[in-house]
Amino acid sequence: MNMARKGVGKNCDIIYVKQEPIPYTMEQLRGMFWRYDTNRDGRLSRKELKEAFNCLGSSIPGWRAHRALNRADDNGDGYISEEEVDELVSYAFKLGYVVK
């Protein structure tokens, strides 16, 4: 449950209010993936994808990276290029990752 501190009530008790999870937008996901292009070659490797999915909160980031490559790597070179990233973002968006 995502809780945010709202304030202090009577007797100095902290009051927490439940916050609904906020889904990532497609632009946020795009930025998240490119943040993990650690060698700045303009392509996302399986290792970089695994790290990105781990940051997004995937319980199985290696498998997600594998599935993302199968889905978005149109030319089969083992990387997600700038031309292929839209399909990757669409895949991740459909999985419903939320800001924590």
TrEMBL record:
CDD domains: EFh (cd00051). Residues 24-59, 64-95 form the EF-hand domain. InterPro entries: EF-hand-dom_pair (IPR011992), EF_Hand_1_Ca_BS (IPR018247), EF_hand_dom (IPR002048). Keywords: Calcium. Pfam families: EF-hand_7 (PF13499). Gene3D superfamilies: EF-hand. It comes from the Eukaryota. One of its GO terms (molecular function) is calcium ion binding. This is EF-hand domain-containing protein.
